[in-house]
Amino acid sequence: MTAQGNLTAQASNIREVDVLPWLSTDIVTLLLLAVLVLSVFRGAYLGTKRTAAGLGSMVGRLLMRVLGILAALLLAGWASPYARDWADRTVLDMPAGELPAWREAGYALLGFVSDFSLLRVALLFVLIYPVCVTGLSLLGRWRTTVEEPPRKKGKRRQSGPFLDRIGGAALGLVAGAWRGALLLALLFVFASLLPASPVTRYAEASPAYRYAAQKVFEPAAGEWISGKLPVLTASAAEELDGILRQRYDVIDRNIPSDIGQAAIDIAGTGADLQKAERLYDWVGSRIQYDYDKVGDYENKGIWREQTPRSTYDTRRGVCIDYARLYAMMARSVGLQVRVVTGLGSDGRGGYGSHAWNEVYIPGEQRWIELDPTWASGGDWFDRENFADTHIKQSVL
User: Fold this and answer.
1) Interatomic CA distance for residues 290 and 314, integer angstroms
2) Could you state, in order of their start, the residue ranges of all structural domains in the chain?
3) Of residues 355, 89, 333, 118, the one with CA closest to residue 248
4) Looking at CB atoms within 10 Å, which of 23, 112, 180, 182 has the fewest?
5) Among the CATH numbers 3.40.50.300, 3.30.565.10, 3.10.620.30, 3.40.50.10860, which is that of 255-395?
6) If you ran DSSP here, which 8-state letter would residue 194 be given?
7) DSSP SS3 for 61
C-alpha cells in the first residue's frame, strides 16, 4: 500500500473513532439540531405571517396547559379528602356475596383510592385537568371575541417573496429554540425522577443538556428539585409498593357464601390454632398443584390469573392460588390471616418465587407460618425450621 493510502486509511480510522462514539452517545444534541433545522425550513416554507401566527399559537397553548395543570393540581388537592371519605363509605357498604369481576375490580380501585393519597390526587388530576383546559380555552375564545378591535381596511405593503422567506426562517429558528428548550426541560424532569434510567444516561452524555441543566434548570428549580422531588419520588415508590402488597386485599375480602360455609364446617370449634391447622390440612390435601399453568407461564409467557372462587371450584392452582384460598377461608372463620410472597427452596440448593400464609394466634401473641402448597410433601404448619426454606419478601 502507498504512503498516501496509509494516510487515507489512518484518517478514516480517526474519523470513525472520533465521530461514531459522538454519534452513538450524543443523541440529544442531534435531536436538538434536527428540531432547529426542521423548524427553520418549515418557517421558510410558511413565510413570515403564518410562522408568526403559529409561534404565537404555540406559546398560547403552552401557557394554557401550564395554567390548566396548576388549576387541576389545586382542585385535586382540595377534593382529595372528600374523595377519600366517599371511597371509604363505598367500600364499607360493599354488598356481601360473590360479585362480578368488574365490580370486584371497582371496589379494589376504591380501596387504593382510600389508602394511597398520591394515587388519589393523580386520579383526580386526570379527571379534572381536561375540564380546566376546556374552561380556559372557552374563556380565551370569549375574550378574543369580545375584546378584538375592528380591523381597518387599507392597503398593506407586501414584502418580496425572498424577504418573506427569510423572516419566516428567522421566526422558525425562534420556534425551534422554544421546542428545544421544552424538550430539554422534559428530559430534566425525567432525569430527576429516574436518575438511573438509560434515557438519563443518554441525556447526561450531551453537552447541550448538561449546560441547560446546570445553568438554567437547576438554578430555576432550586430547592424543589433537591428537596421536594426526591421526597415525592420516594413517596410514590412507597405507595406503589403498598398497592402491590394489597393487590388482592379488597377483591378477596368478599367471601362467597358456599366457601364461607365450607370453611366453617371444616374449621369446626376450638382454639384459633386448631381451626387454622384444620383449614391448612383441607386446602393442602384437596387442591392439586397445576403444573400446566406453570408450564404455560415458563414456556409461553402466559399467566392465567384466577380467583379463590375458581381455585375452590377446579381444585387446582399454584402457590399464590393455594395461599389466597386459604386466606379467604381463614377470614370466614374469624382468623387474622395474610398472604406472604417471597422465595421458596427448590430442594436442590436454589430458590424460586413462592407464596404461603401467616395466621395470628391471639392467645400466643404471635404469627405462625404455614405453607398449604407443600402440605402434600410434609408438615409445614408452624414448623420450627420454616425460615430455612422460605425467604419472606412482602406481605399482601
Assistant:
1) 10
2) 3-147+160-245, 255-395
3) 355
4) 23
5) 3.10.620.30
6) -
7) helix
Say if CB 202 and CB 28 are below 8 A apart. yes
The whole-angstrom separation of Cα 192 and Cα 186 is 10
Give the DSSP letter of residue 151.
P
Decide: 144 and 265 in contact? Cβ < 8 Å.
no
Residue where the block lists cell 422554544:
178
- Say how far apart CA 38 and CA 226 lie, in whole Å: 35
Averaged pLDDT for residues 272-289: 94
Amino acid of residue 391: I
- Dump the DSSP string for 113-138: HHH-HHHHHHHHHHHHHHHHHHHHHH
Kindly give the pairing relationship between strand 336-345 and strand 316-317. unpaired
Residue 395 phi, psi dihedral angles, 5° rounding: -120, 125
Could you tell me if 342 and 252 are in contact, meaning their C-beta atoms sit under 8 angstroms apart?
no
